[in-house]
Amino acid sequence: MSFMRNPFTSKSVLLILGDIAVSVASIYAGIFLRTLGEYSFQLQKYSPMAPKVAAFACILIFMCFLLDLYNLDKKVGKKEIFLKILIANVLVAVPLGAIYYFLPFAKLGRGILFLSLCFSILLQSVWHIGYALFLRLPVATKRVLILGTGPIAQTMGNLLLRNNNGFALAGYVNCVGEPIHVPKDDVIGEGEGLLAIALKERVQKIVVSLSERRGTLPVREVLNCKLQGVDIVDGPSFYEQLTGKLLIENMNPSHLIFSDGFKVTAARRYFKRILDVILAAAGLILSWPFLLIVPVLIKLDSKGLVLFKQERVGEGEKLFTLFKFRTMVDGAEEETGPVWSMDGDSRITKLGRFLRKSRLDEIPQLFNVLRGDMSFTGPRPERPFFVESLKIQIPYYSERHCIKPGITGWAQVKYEYGDSIEDAIEKMRYDLFYIKYQSLSLDMLIVMDTFKVILFGRGGR
Predict the structure, then answer these.
(1) What is the pLDDT of residue 2?
(2) What is the pTM of this model?
């Protein structure tokens, strides 16, 4: 599915393209208004325009991304949209100042920049609020019919009702032998009349969500619906599209073998390794002040070694030594043995809480990346004790070790720190999604989301 190869939905891409157009219009409007009193309006004196527009647009879009303005999964009010746009445009001025210092040819005058930001706030607010209102109209919503009434169908229905995803639930269609786990009032027919129901309800998509297809799937009716232009998709694929994770409870080995994805080629491994080395080297260069300051602060805060070393499970379930700055008291697990860190864990030092929230404790893992133990993006490396336990309790848990673990990853940015089997299962869904659809664009999205997580201190314990 093209959606999976591109982690940005078509709706969010359209929103971003609109913001690019707003950026261009705002700069030209700012220049026009600033030079209105002059003898003539001449753009030549401000050329080249491309670097100026590109710098403004890129920083604006990045700020909007940090403030979740491109997250269309949840409904937000007009005031919240306007406030976020106002904050984003105010914050744009800070990084632009640095860019103008190093790249003078991209510079806009202070007067033009101020006017451009004013136009941007106005135009962007109109665009975002108008777009949000449009997405709520029936014409922009796809009606979805769920084929099935069992537990998978129930999951799909709850997903549609819970998320602001541009889909509306038309109802459920029951099939022979399928249990009923959904509200009976929402069951609008039987499988043998599927085409008539789809036409009557003006359905654009049918989600096949049967617990057992053999002997229950009305093949002829489903085919007729497809020939009538109705989009047919299976439940697990629809779940992936809406959530960015895999429905592992109902997944079988054939799904891993025959589905699109799960392709780890030699070329991708080689390219990713080059990118990992570049990013790790750049990270160490940028973080060298912390490599000097943090060890001193750790020594002043508590007794024990500065660097924490621990065995973790890597690619191919091979063990490696992970490096981190110590955030717990010395000998934290001597009496308890390996245990998950819980919210409000008394073993974590005062400085350690800050290091975990800011992710500064993970800087030494850049050396693990240079050594080849880890990648910059990938599943979080777990401890051998927990891996052996989780392999027994979670289906396909070993499959997350087919690639190198990462400093950051899809599960880390999409789900907060976990301290239970349920949390491990939820993170496993995201890890398998990443392995299935791994790509440069998805890696870029993870890196950008990581900035957001660090900036707002989400998830660390």
Answers:
(1) 43
(2) 0.79
